[in-house]
Amino acid sequence: MSRATDAGRVAVVGLGLVGGSLTRLLAARGADVVATDTHPGARSDARAVGLRVTDDLAALCATEPDLVVLAVPLRAVRATAAELAPLLAGSDATLSDVGSVKGPVRAAVGAAGLADRYVGAHPMAGTEHSGFAASDAALLDGAPWAVTVAAPGTAAPGEPARLARVLRLVTGPLGGTAAVVTDDRHDEAAALVSHVPHVLATQLLNAVAGAPVRDLALGLAAGSFRDGTRVALTDPARTEAMVTENAAWVAPALRKAVRDLEVVIGALETNGSLHDVFHAADEVRELRAGARARSGGPDEDLPVGGAWTAGLVDDLVARCTAGAVVVRADDDVVRVRAPR
Amino acid sequence: MSRATDAGRVAVVGLGLVGGSLTRLLAARGADVVATDTHPGARSDARAVGLRVTDDLAALCATEPDLVVLAVPLRAVRATAAELAPLLAGSDATLSDVGSVKGPVRAAVGAAGLADRYVGAHPMAGTEHSGFAASDAALLDGAPWAVTVAAPGTAAPGEPARLARVLRLVTGPLGGTAAVVTDDRHDEAAALVSHVPHVLATQLLNAVAGAPVRDLALGLAAGSFRDGTRVALTDPARTEAMVTENAAWVAPALRKAVRDLEVVIGALETNGSLHDVFHAADEVRELRAGARARSGGPDEDLPVGGAWTAGLVDDLVARCTAGAVVVRADDDVVRVRAPR
To answer: Residue A278 and residue A289: Cα distance in Å, rounded?
Structure first.
């Protein structure tokens, strides 16, 4: 069985929405967690609710954590990693993060010489708010995570054991599931289900904001516009950073969107058929309708056999890239749930 | 004060989601309402809940309604209007509808010689379901409506009185508000806040459905994808019809979307700034944040002065095109609420 102590001591860098929620949830589950933040207000607010907080990164690393989780804004990862590197020089601590893109974060920690101890992580949860005041243990409780490994052929020998540590944390005290994939597959999928939706929502809002019929349109707006623009109402600077950091995957996905929209425009302007456009995703519609009625795919237990190996990691990546998730990670077995 | 009987006898053609909900709400409010449908099952279901239903259009018109509301699918409007025209030959009944586009409906009823008695109407409410079984008086109770008049210079002399009748219905027993605008302004605004959002939601769903990382992406999908694709999960044939009927306004709006997306792609590919894109709608963000805190704009009573005139209609159109709505329409006064 997973135990809260399986993950060892966890050090969280950054007490914003996600870092604060992560620290709260781990503390609530009895895990050994310590955190810090560059803002004195965040530190005192976190101490006021009973969390263990250090004044700076040096003091955080002096607690000898087994796992350090970067929960700082994407633009701050490079500088934070550079500050962290000498502090971790005598330690074997694993480094992870909670960023919404993974390839650029691996590159940033790599620039600080920390790539060999890095395992990427991204909880699929969030709100339109930010800061420790908005943090809440419930935000991450049971969340689906993506946990990312290096590209094939580039992994450090220690990666399987570090991955196991992160998976024990996610599926243990955090109560979540983990899709183990490469950075590229994560960033490609995140572009499709998160970054492109944010860009399209922004375009919808901008189009109405700049239209001569703006006030009438806003007055008539109902469900489809409200849903379609909800994420555009959140902090636009944060959205800009997220989209920009994943430019390598967002740009081609938007190019495809443009091509698709040009097909629609062409049909509308020539009285052509839109049948194929509107029925292209019928299989997904049926899958979703079916998924609501089912409780989940079948589980399969994979034997670990002593120590986690690169072969086991490759197997997990292959299964998760096809939609499976890890639901439990013990010393002797890893449990995988097939996609619904 | 508005009275339920102000609207006279209302005949509803079509007992689907909207027609059924309209008939139920009017009956619940004690209004004089009769309905029909070409499907015997819809007629018997409606009778079973106590609604007054005729077997066909001829019997419906024989009840001598003051207002006939077409609540049939867009593709059926032209044929229904042609069947209705001879049945209304000896009557002064006003003709209205509930369609999601207005210019094409006016053209269709005009082809049957009914344009002079037509006032367009579109309730801004709906669900992903359809049919009488899904109808519910609550769906339309208090809904915002668009009510449309002919283009400047083309209105029949009787239009002001017919508009007054429709506004009494909407703001009286239906408890709603009405934006009085021309067909073109309605269709332009509806393209922006309804039809383009439906196309973009469909594109998002199609892109994921056709991606090599489909199963991973669906597994990682969280709020932004769920919200961004919700309306794409509804009946795609209905969406296709709605978008196609409003091609004249949807196509140019999509062309603008393509241009906007190309700006984003260009910035992503050249490491350019996206600041302006992500902050273009800041004023609307602030308006929306403010609107949530306020209860509504100030009301103004416009005197009718005996009978509704073309000048009063022009005044209402000017105000509503700028975001105002009619909240009450009596014989002597029409009350207009300024935009928030």
So the answer is: 17
